[in-house]
Amino acid sequence: MSENKKRKLKYLFTQYVRRHITNEELSDLKSIVNSSGNEDLDKPLRELWMNKEYPPFLPTDDQKIRMIQRIEQSIQKENHPIVLSLHKRFFRTFSRIAAVFIFALLSGICIYLYRSNQNLTVYKNNEIMLNVGNGQEAGFILPDGTSVKLNSGSTLCYANNFGENNRFVNFSGEAFFEVKQDKNRPFIVSTKYLNIEVVGTTFNVYAFDSSDVVEMTLLTGSVKASSKKNPEYHVFVKPNEKVVCDISTGKLTVQKTDTQYETAWLNGEIVFKSETLSNVLAKLERKYGVHIRYEGNADLLNDRFSGRIGKDNNMDDVLKILTNHYPLKYGQKGNAFILSNRKQK
Amino acid sequence: MSTTGKILVNESDYVKRLKEGSHEAYTVLYEYYLPDLYAFIYSTTYSKDFAEEVVQETFVRLWENRASIKLETSFKSYLFTIARNYMLDEFRRQINHPVFTEYIEYSNQLQLSENTTEKHLDFSEFCVEFNKAKKKLSARQLEIFYLNKELGQSIHSVAIQLEIAEQSVRNQLSTALSILRKEMKNFIALFTFLFL
Asked: Which has more pLDDT, A82 or B12?
């Protein structure tokens, strides 16, 4: 961005936050913003913040109290959950077995608490959190008999009164659910952008908090999916269909899909269907639990890649495929893989 | 300086203690920065709800990532870094919204006429009210309203598209407007300006 343009952008932002911007200036601002990345917008906005060049629209006392309460609530949750964290690949088998035992124990506690109401309140604020690190996959049975397979980098939380009135889980990542049928207590999967409500069914959810795609694919049964942002948007999904949530508008669309593709990860495969290279790399980092540093041409990151990686392929195989496909070469430095430009012959 | 005019003495001590996990230091820091951060986010996104959300999210993230705070860089600048991407997503959505241009024009006029900076409208509140009001319209009225007022197509081209007479487009539109006007009591001033 030229110095001139930078100065102009700063001026436009200043007018904008002061509510003094004219219509012509607004359309200038719009066209600069729409053609610039967040990095370009960083500096002028950071200056406004640092120098306090914005109007004092302070929160009311009510708003302030509300925000502080919510902050405290969220960090309380983070502080005291019972965490089952499966970290190192080295302990993979061991931790799986251990997890099953610990889990059986926790389930037992839940059932016990469920039966003896007296103790229930004591543990009421506790949450049980299942966390699967990168490079891992794990399967669990929830206290109601529902089976969940969690893909790498996924987290599932539920309160220990799970199953008391309803079956509610908070979820981020990718998982395959086989929900135990129970007409009286709907099973609800809450993700950052999408809520999924079911009675008894099998489905796959792809909803990483950091991802810009949120999807749910249904294999059997029927589910109701609603958008968090705008609960008015809800759709009923039938088998072999998937619902895709546009995270910016909260809009839901239903599409026909191939369930084999959606659940390939259950067999240890990764399938890319016209995905951007930056998405591909993020998936590989999760799947293999490695760090990939990209030093190649930035434009390539938006290039769309399709392909299937079998369960017997390791990280080297995958990088070979990618470096054959793109003008890139790869190397390794400590824990990280590095992809950089290959010199043209 | 905070909005109350006070300076946070020993800020770097609090930041250091936060990094070591002190909840007390954390509360001192959010008490101090929260009103300013809210004002900043609100002034860039024009949405009170969203400003609250970003402020919450920012301070929660601050706590979660307390261990990785870098003591040598400005703490205030670090808060901006956490908030930045949430804020920019919303900001981009906002300025590309179909009725945002009209909304800005109105806000400016309101400020000039009332001669006060306190009188500012929340864009998302406006949109919520407006969408509620639109529910009272019939499907046809809604379609005509959308094509003509929100997409800015002429009466003539709406009539051709829907294969009806221009006069009936006008009739439907005026019925739609009177229904909306009745529903939009709180925002009547803005509404009158936008669509009449």
From this structure: B12
Is the alpha carbon torsion for A30, A31, A36, A37 positive or negative?
positive
- At B43-91, the pLDDT tens digits run 998 888 889 999 999 999 999 999 999 888 899 999 999 999 889 988 9
Pick the residue with more confidence: B191 or A279?
A279
* Alpha-carbon span A105 to B89, nearest angstrom: 43
In a domain, A227, yes or no: yes
Using the Cβ of A68 and the Cβ atoms of chain B, whether some distance falls under 8 Å is answered with yes
Domains and CATH numbers, chain B: 11-95 (1.10.1740.10), 100-195 (1.10.10.10)
Check whether residue A288 and residue A257 sit in a common domain. Answer: no
Which residue blocks in chain A are alpha helix, DSSP H?
Answer: 3-17, 23-34, 38-50, 61-79, 92-115, 117-120, 259-262, 277-288, 315-325
Q: Based on the domain organization, do A205 and A307 belong to the same domain?
A: no
In DSSP notation, B114-180 reads: HT-SS----HHHHHHHHHHHHTTS-HHHHHHHIIIIIS---HHHHHHHHTS-HHHHHHHHHHHHHHH
Mutation target to probe the A interface, by most A beta carbons within 10 A, among B6, B43, B127 is B43
Same domain, A258 and A111: yes
Looking at the complex, does the CB of residue A55 fall below 8 Å from at least one CB of chain B?
Answer: yes
Q: Are residues A295 and A230 in the same domain?
A: no
Q: Is residue A70 part of a domain?
A: no
Using the beta-carbon criterion (under 8 Å), do B35 and A64 form an inter-chain contact?
yes
Residue span of the structural domain in which A300 resides: 270-341
- The total domain count for chain A is 3
A261 shares contact with chain B (CB less than 8 Å): no
pLDDT band at B189 (very low <50, low <70, confident <90, very high): low
- Chunk chain A into consecutive blocks of 10 residues (it has 345) and report each block's average pLDDT, rounded to whole numbers: 87 89 88 89 93 89 88 71 38 47 48 33 54 76 84 82 82 86 83 81 80 78 81 79 81 81 80 83 83 86 83 83 86 85 70
Say yes or no: A173 and A251 in one domain.
yes
Whether residue A55 is contained in a domain is answered as no
